[in-house]
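Moderator note: this is an archived Q&A kept for reference. The question asked for a predicted structure of one protein chain; the sequence and the answer are reproduced below.
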Amino acid sequence: MALIGRDPWSGQILRLEYADGRVTAVHRESGDADLPWISPGLVDLQVNGYGGFDLNGDDLDIATVVGLREALRAVGVTTFVPTLVTASADRISHAVAVVAEARRRHPEVAQAIPFVHLEGPHISDQDGPRGCHDATFVRPPDLAEFEQCQQAADGLIGLITLSPHWPGSAEFIAAVRSTGTRVAVGHTHADTAQIRAAVDAGATLSTHLGNGAHAQLPRHPNYLWAQLADDRLSAGFIADGHHLPVEAFVAMVRAKGLDRAFLVSDSVAIGGRPPGEYSTAVGGDVELTDDGRLLVRGTPYLAGAAAPLADGVAWAAAAFSLPEALTMATANPGRIVGGTVGQLCPGVPVSSVITFHWSHIDGNLSEITVGALA
């Protein structure tokens, strides 16, 4: 059996033979057949929820994790990282334990979820950089708390986002990195020296760079320049047209370099729902506008994102190209996950391959299909 489609990177026809659920061979052929595009499934390193499934809600259970995986597959995401925001230690420990148990019970969930991302609680306590995180639970890094949470997660915590302005941040980062967990700089008001110290200690990523920031910054120096200039940091970007204007997105990706840039959705449970007013765990009372902007109700502040990563790919493709946008949503985040995630090669699960239609005129990915077509 085989999957057939056009390669967005070369324009060639790709024939992926598969057996027993895995790709066995990849053949390239010339031709101009009217076929859908084919690529690795999208890899989203920052998912708070989607389609009504909320990872940060009071009622988080295994069914929520399973349902979220299915909802994301419907929009082309085959690998995702559950992201848990600032909360009490007990709540975070409970959430990571639920995700770990879902992986143990459901092999398809284990295949889709490589690790968990803790976005907080060791972030900035200042308005702006804190974003919509609950200030009540913002607190300094605590290695004992991390170790207890990691035990509850059965070792599943693979990424922590923090602000390195806290005293002892560099020591905390070095200790966390020694366990194999990645560290990202984000939701920060740290100065240039503190960011450099964090990277020296082992931080390798920037979380949704350009957001979780003050509305106004000194022209220079500031924490955005510091992260953009450091080639040791790869950076995530929310490409939805609301978190970053296209000019800022293009300039930041060019400054960081295409190989060190990746797209994230930062989607929350409201994603996929119609415009209206909602109450959510991330942001509290929020409003989803007709143009897809998710706001803390009555304010201009964003409360996460409502668009799936496929929409981000389409938006980024209009600014760069479809191959470049796909690279930032497949291969680049796939390298962070490791293994063959984000690649098309023998051995990858056929369930991590997608086909889709694309038109630069319509500007969207449509008719997304995940997995095998007989």
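Archived answer notes: The longest strand covers residues 77-85.
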